Automatic annotation (TrEMBL):
Belongs to the catalase family. HPII subfamily. Residues 1-357 form the Catalase core domain. Keywords: Heme, Hydrogen peroxide, Iron, Metal-binding, Oxidoreductase, Peroxidase. One of its GO terms (biological process) is response to oxidative stress. This is Catalase. One of its GO terms (cellular component) is cytosol. Its EC number is 1.11.1.6. It comes from Gracilibacillus boraciitolerans JCM 21714. The keyword Oxidoreductase applies. It comes from the Bacteria. Gene3D superfamilies: 1.20.1370.20, 3.40.50.880, Catalase core domain (2.40.180.10). PANTHER family: CATALASE, CATALASE-B.
Amino acid sequence: MTHFDHERIPERIVHARGFAAHGEFQVYQSMKEFTKADFLQDPSKTTPVFVRFSTVAGSKGSGGELARDARGFSTKFYTDEGNYDLVGNNIPVFFIQDAIKFPDLVHALKPEPHNEMPQAASAHDTFWDFVANNQEAAHMVMWAMSDRAIPRSFRMMEGFGVHTFRFVNHKGESHFVKFHWKPVLGTHSVVWDEAQKINGKDPDFHRRDLWESIQDGDYPEYELGVQIIAEEDEFKFDFDVLDPTKLWPEEDVPVKIVGKMTLNRNVDNVFAETEQVAFHPGHVVPGIDFTNDPLLQGRLFSYTDTQLIRLGGPNFHELPINRPVCPFHNNQRDGYGRQTINQGQVSYHNNSLAQNTPETTPEAQGGYKHYQEKIEGQKIRARSESFKDHFSQATLFWNSMSDAEKEHIIEAFSFELGKVQSRSVQEQIVNMFANVSTDLTKGFAEAIGIEPPAMKDNSVTKSSPALSQENTVHSVATRKVAVIIGDDFDDSNVSSVLEQLNNKGIKTEILSNKLGTVKGNNGLAYEVNHTFLTADSVLFDAVYVVGAAEDKSFYKKAALFVHEAYSHFKPIAATEAGEKLLEVDEMKDSLGVIRGSASTAFASQFIEAIAAHRHWDRQVE
Ligand code: HDE
């Protein structure tokens, strides 16, 4: 009973709701020119990894992984030189420039303290008040209001190290580097109405997706990309390369793809692994170092500090999930929960009784040595002038969006500010974002009944096509299709269509009005996976309506399902019997709606429609 009484530990102060998996990393070619990091040298070497994905704002048990939020994307590489942690997000920039503001940001974002509402949401007064009064947040807010904040799955989102780090090679030369994870399946999102419904229908939607794809052998894959800037080029850009509210446009500084990570094993125990894993941007290996990014500097303090309370003392690095896989020696001793039974008399340095061991490995033998940066001038606590432009890249982001993506951003602002009670905060935000785009502000100011301010001049016309999800990889592999079938369905060619889909790696699941077996008019039978009660259109990427014999209740439920999928811009295929569900004429002739008798051509068109992900043209109709 005593053990049971103590089974809970404090949840993470941010990123509490997370899910993780094991995997491995391999570099494509040696990165020797830039870094001496051992795990980035040899393409034949496999480095084990553990990756935890998370939402930021919600508590551990918060309902719904589809909250509008950034996603954490933390990777622990268990290298032969010790653990390297890349503790990133799925958004490449951050809300603030100075770490000391982090507690304020999080206080404003979390549920309000007097009534603890709302859970896992930024749509409330304190968050938007913080934004209006800390305008460096403008750029990340644009990302948070975009489709990036409602990913289709953990397997379909990018990851970013956010900060500028340093690569150091064997010659001691340093380059600035930004890290990227590019999902092999492309970067895809759901729509906001869908996200809210998924949160109710399956609050575990993202973790289930990750868990099931690993179980099915559809291992999530991400390529590691690096952007590199030579130290001497530090001042050649119209932004400060150490400012964490800025990205390096990929068109100006190309992302070099250098390796691949594959997640191939689910955890055995969520508490022991996912909950107890302790990430830290300060866990570096020789060849990777820090810069003077002031946000990074603050993180280097915070992550050890937080584990001390969360994991109950200084020995958290000895927990199985945190232990390095290489040999290590130090003079650390004792403390709560000590696991190692150290031998011998000596636990100090320098010593003569143990031949001066253990000692820090000298650099020549692979030991860590920080890059020595030459610095001149006053060290003061102030924000650099070069950190003062808060709007140019917010506009760059806006300019880079497709029409549909812009529409979604306007809707997101309209939703979030529509939930804000304070008229003054709403007005401040309208004024602030007029600095980003007048089209944007006009769009949402109208929705919340505020007069947009007179045009302000924003001269940024540049765009970065890489930022639009329209330009991502479009793959059909592992997409989920709901196949709607009722009894006495016309079974000619159904199995060949399903086979064609399955051959492309598309998952098909049979939906009907009751569990059991559905039978076609020529004896074809399918085991039903879900009913209209246990599943919902928001849990699928596309719908294939095979239909049924005349059955009113079947068609009533199926019609709701199909209409909702249509309203979320999803591909729909319907055979003749299923066509009666597409009653609205506009639906019949929309792009992404395939009609006809089941045939090879019909299946190919459907596959093409699935590859498009969503059919945004419906929005314009
Ligand atoms: Fe974190 N962050 N953070 N953060 N962060 C934590 O550490 C912090 C920041 C990120 O899956 C905490 O172990 C400060 C940026 C991820 O276990 C804490 C600042 C980025 C995770 C903390 C930042 C992140 C955390 C809470 C401002 C993207 C989850 C629990 C300087 C690059 C890690 C913990 C996991 C977690 C502090 C800003 C990503 C309190 C002070 C920027 C993915 O230490």
